[in-house]
Amino acid sequence: MIELAGIIVLGILAQWVAWKFKIPAILPLILIGLFVGPISTLLSEDGTQWIQPIYDGKNGLFPGENLFYFVSLAIGIILFEGGLTLRRGEITKVGGVIGKLISIGSAITFIGAGVAAHYVFGLDWRISFLFSALIIVTGPTVITPILRNIPLKKHVSAVLKWEGILIDPIGALVAVLVFEFISVEGDAGFTKQALIEFGKIVLIGFSFGISAGYALYFSIKRKLIPHYLLNVVSLSMVLMIFVLSDQFAHESGLLAVVVMGMFLGNSDLPSLKELLYFKESLSVLLISILFILLAANISLEDMLLVYNWKTAILLAIIIFLLRPLGVFISTMGSSLKTNEKLFISWVGPRGIVAAGIASLFGTKLVIEGVPGAEYITPLVFAVVLVTVLLNAASARFFASAVGVFLKTSEGIMIVGASKVSRLIGTYLQKNNRHVVLVDTNRLNIEKAKELGLEAINGNIYSDDLSDNIELNDVGYLLAMTGNDEINAQALRRYRDIFGENGAFRLMNSEERKIKNSISSNELFSTTHDYVRFTEVARDFPSIQELPIDTQSKFLKLLGYIEEEENAVPLFIKDDENHIDLIENPQEMEITKESYLVYLGKPIDFEDVMNVTKEEEEKTEAQ
Question: Is 177 a residue whose pLDDT tops 90?
Answer without folding.
Answer: no
